[in-house]
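The data layer described in this paper is built around a simple, fixed record for each protein. Because each token names a local backbone shape, the row as a whole describes the fold. We quote a single record here, exactly as it is kept in our systems:

***
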Amino acid sequence: MQKNSHTITLVGAGLTGPLLGLSLAQRGFPVQIFERRPDMRRTRASAGRSINLAVSTRGIHALREANLWDQMSRIIIPMKGRMMHSLAGELTFQPYGKNDTEVINSISRADLNVALMSAAEAEGVKIHFTERCTGMDWTAGAARFRNEESGRETTVHSEIVIGTDGSASALRQDMQKQGRLNFSQEVLDYGYKELTIAAGPSGKHALEPHALHIWPRGAYMLIALPNIDGTFACILFLPREGPESFSSLDSKEKPLHFFREKFADAVPLMPQLQENYATNPSGSMVTIKSAPWQADGKVLLLGDAAHAIVPFFGQGMNCAFEDCTLFLELLDQHGPNWPKLFQEFERGRKHNTDAIAAMALENFIEMRDRVADPRFLFRKKVELALEAKYPRRFVPKYAMVTFHRVPYSVALTRGTIQDRLLAELCAPITRIEDLDWKKADDLIQRDLTPLETL
């Protein structure tokens, strides 16, 4: 490792900051991270603000590049597919991929955050806690912070400042105030509330642990992801307003009645449902787009600070980690030529982050409305059959996003074409045995080129 004199300040010690800081330190850069929250390893985390994460290929690649993936095996649970729970309690399993090697991995956000911070510190990264970023001194090119406990204000000078401080990024907000970027925000008219399915006897999972459980109910849904302690982290996604909404569940009894009516098989597994519902806050979900992501070749936004997305494709963290992958590849290629690196990073990345933002919104509709539809499930079977026969040409959009590192923009474009082909092939049939393979071959050879990145 060659020591580098370029000092780097990162704002935010969530998931992306420690991963990027660790990787930069491995390349010899002096790195410090400033985080507005207390050290979560020493304080009890508040409940209800952490949707469990699904680590897939893009995130795994970034963790492998940092030599971290092997140690994550003790805190992940592989999920092979979706387990749908009907209103009557019937179960239907839909595999995610073509075989058992194509899985996504459930992980606690808190466990992952702790592991990343500890790994970054072990590499020499200094993390300063309870330090809120108040913006930049643009004349001096220095970041400003205020200690949340003492109120002491400091100005930190470094070669570059990178904002990894999430969707409410203080650094981005200061760039907005200075007229340095365009910004758009779309708040979903749904909220979410985190609940818990308790562990069964002897700490075993009360439901199939290697699946993401979904209770799809058309306009809303409940999902559950397994934790290593035998519990499931449940998330209720519900409209904010309306007859069946967070606003309508306005008494202690109404949520329990609602769950007994809509998610009856889950209620016996949630002995603290009323307490959790009353105590845990409801969160918001937002899509954020901004441009440019950099200023003066000095300041860069990365991850959710630049492009937050809703969680329904399980790609928020994976996308941010892939930001780190591209950034580090460019750094290894160009060295610390920050202005050039920042420009190439944004130019190579923004159209892909816009694409996954669109796909995440589309997948919300799929998860809440379509996964219980027999025709949708039949199309998924046809998708897998086509992938088996044309493994380099017809790859389901979900697989391109989740199990490969196909650029998001390519996955979006090809996914649109494939949806059209599927609609044409599936319209006249109800059984895979009746699929017109000659027509399928003609359409696929005509409209889909081989994927070079597989």
User: Anything to note?
Assistant: The CA atoms of residues 75 and 107 lie 6 Å apart. The first helix runs from residue 16 to 26. The first strand starts at residue 8 and ends at 11. The chain is about 40% helix and 25% strand.
